[in-house]
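Sequence design from tokenized structure. All designs in this work follow the same two-part layout: the structure record, then the generated sequence. An example of the structure record is given first.
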């Protein structure tokens, strides 16, 4: 009998020891889980703050670029540029034109690169919709033309075509705005796109750049 009581006591003691060990493991696991969760939350908060800060910095840079003047840029009073739809030829005071009366159908400008001449009246309508028009003459180096074409193809509300009788080898035009640049790496290219693709000069922001006339 005494041996049985001693055996039962030992078994209860072992069970109690195992129960306490299990409780200790559970407490450790809870602490570990809480600690890991806290680290994850803090990491997410920190990453979220970093992303927001980066977006804020990017927005500030874009706003600064939009306000900064572009060297040697030419401007025309947008309010004085005609906006009538016409079916007859139009003589523009600048080449390429940056605004004025134009065809009722726009030139497709969803990153469209044209390798031959396009009608000015259609291109002007694209500018009215907020497009930037990149033009080049035979004086422009082929490598620069290729790089600019790659940029246009990636940019909605832009188009590109040759204009042989323009004054500069490479020119960028928006509604009421124009600049001659030295090449694709000229910082004024990015500045012009940032400022005028669907920029504040756009008479009809958000109007279509597809569904018009192609080549």
């Amino acid at each position: 009998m005494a041996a049985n009581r001693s055996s039962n006591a030992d078994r209860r003691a072992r069970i109690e020891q195992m129960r306490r060990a299990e409780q200790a493991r559970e407490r450790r696991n809870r602490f570990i889980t809480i600690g890991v969760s806290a680290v994850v939350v803090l990491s997410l908060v920190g990453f979220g703050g970093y992303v927001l800060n980066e977006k804020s910095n990017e927005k500030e840079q874009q706003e600064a670029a939009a306000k900064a003047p572009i060297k040697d840029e030419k401007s025309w009073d947008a309010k004085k540029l005609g906006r009538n739809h016409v079916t007859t030829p139009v003589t523009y005071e600048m080449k390429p034109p940056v605004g004025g009366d134009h065809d009722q159908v726009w030139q497709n400008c969803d990153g469209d690169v044209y390798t031959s001449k396009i009608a000015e009246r259609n291109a002007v309508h694209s500018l009215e919709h907020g497009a930037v028009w990149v033009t080049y003459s035979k004086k422009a180096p082929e490598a620069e033309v290729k790089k600019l074409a790659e940029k246009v193809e990636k940019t909605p509300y832009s188009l590109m075509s040759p204009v042989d009788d323009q004054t500069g080898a490479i020119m960028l035009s928006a509604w009421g705005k124009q600049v001659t640049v030295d090449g694709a790496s000229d910082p004024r290219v990015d500045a012009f796109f940032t400022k005028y693709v669907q920029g504040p000069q756009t008479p009809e922001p958000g109007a279509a750049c597809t569904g018009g006339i192609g080549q």
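The longest strand covers residues 132-136. We note this feature because it recurs in several other targets discussed in the main text.
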